[in-house]
Amino acid sequence: MSQPSLVVGNVNWFKYASPQSFYPLAGAMIPWFAWAAAALCAAGLYVGFFVAPTDHQQGESYRIIFIHVPAAWMSMFLYLVMAFWAGVGLVFNTRLSHMMASALAPTGALFTFLALWTGSLWGKPTWGTWWVWDARLTSELILLFLYFGFMALKAAIDDPRRADRAGAVLALVGVVNIPIIYYSVEWWNTLHQGASVSLTRAPTMAATMLTGMLLMALAAWMYSIAASLHRVRSVILERERGADWLRAL
User: Fold this and answer.
1) Fewest CB atoms less than 10 Å from the CB: which of 109, 159, 212, 235?
2) pLDDT, tens digit, for every residue of 6-43?
């Protein structure tokens, strides 16, 4: 039986499904995404902290949203991507898919921590307290535990294949928490404000505020790709050590 292929622009992308082929491709892409992340972050911080107007209700303290909101978005998005790759690896038994899931987890945990930390900094002047057991905050904290649990479970099992399967099951089960985080402000009466940016309605903030937030979101996205590609190369080196193609590098 012939091997399936996905040819786009005279490039057979299926060949990059193997760690041997993906390793140099990831190395070539990292600088592009890293520089894009740096440029977008600089532009986003400039717009957010020096161009965007002062909020008439929250004053200058609202500017934490330029870090908090993109971090919260990425914490949920990266978990979905991690669970997707874990599921692909579980169904098709592809090594690189499990490696990608492992590489995404630390970055997802980082953004989840940033979302919780900046949320506390925002909550003190806004709500008068650093933390409340609010539905949105609690479900986001659970997301951080899911990331930690995924990484800890894979590290606790010596057999890589068993670790991959166990981690994939946990990642897929944890997906149920993502809609809970997103819709918590609609399902329950919470202190956390509703979404200022939505795909179904016009944004409820000034154009410069939205621009700064979107620039920071793109910066977080570019950083996530660069960091995950760098980390997956490390995972490949660890998992494939002893392979002939690695000795030839």
Assistant:
1) 159
2) 444 444 556 667 888 899 999 999 999 999 999 999 99
Give yes or no for a contact between 144 and 116, defined as CB atoms under 8 angstroms apart: yes
Q: What is the DSSP string of 66-119?
A: HHHHHHHHHHHHHHHHHHHHHHHHHHH--HHHHHHHHHHHHHHHHHHHHHHHHH
- What pLDDT digit, counting tens, does each position of 108-164 carry? 999 999 999 998 888 777 777 777 888 888 899 999 999 999 999 999 999 999 999
Fill in the amino acid letter for 246: L
The domain spans of the chain are 63-239
Contact 213, 65 (CB under 8 A): yes
The pTM of the full predicted model, rounded to 2 decimals, is: 0.88
Closest among 16, 52, 8, 32 to 223, alpha carbons compared:
32
**How many CB atoms neighbour CB 210 within 10 A?**
16
